[in-house]
Amino acid sequence: MKKIFKSLLASSLALGLAACGSSTSADTQTVGIIQLVQHPALDATNEGFKDALEEAGIEVTYDDQNAQGDIANCDSIASKFVNDGVDLIYAIATPAAQSAASKTTDIPIVVSAVTDPASSGLVQSNENPGTNVTGASDLTPVQEQIDLLKQLIPTAKTVGVMYNSSEDNSIFQANLAKEAIEAAGMTYKPYTVSESNAIQQVVESAVGKVDAIYIPTDNLLADGMQTVAMVCNENKIPTIVGEAGMVTNGGLATYGIDYYELGKLAGQQAVEILKNQANPASMPIVYLNKEECELTINQTTADALGITIPADLSSEAVIVE
Asked: Does residue 19 surpass a pLDDT of 80?
């Protein structure tokens, strides 16, 4: 009888421990992160996302992967996440998001640093996604950035626009810039790149042909901004860029979004999905308010170019050296 009792007790304890184990497992969510490449804007988006989930009290295990700018790596990482059965995929930048979306229609995908998810084929519309994808757009205030160019370089007549011809959202922003530049009475001149080793040659081809260069939020050019700045600053070509990290790396100025806050915005959507079982298909793409944009100026670059920053701009700007 004692043996039977001990056997039953052992079985009960084993079942109890198993139940505890499964409960802990169920309480922990697994999020796979695909980041296209490492640079300050995308790093900040990653950090903001994680902070939003932490603030919401969600217990998360992250599989945080960086594709090093390689589309094939994005595909491999996305396939791994699908095979592992993660609860949610966070995809940072358009190619990473497209890879994730191509691998699963079941696992919820939250994207960030994607300018126009609709034109990238990720959703049916930004207002009503209709797919397993939702997220936060990094659409920058292009019009305000071109206005800033006019303020800082009032004599500019021809503006070169450098963008990645193989990235949908870079093309989308270049088209917006073209409209704004021509509406301001200036001439638009496109300069395209599709791989990093061509950046210096393309920038050098613009020397003597443009009065300023505008670069949107483009991952390839953000990663190669030091090369762009080296050529432009030596040749007295001011650069107005898409985000603050590019200013830190030698660009003249931007009026841009805060990528950390963008990540938090995406993270809040992930919270709704993981905690409240929200359906991405009915969650509109979200945007930061223009009030959350920030003026950033590189004083060292301004000095090298011989540009005096108007007092009304310098008083409201974040100044980097």
From this structure: no
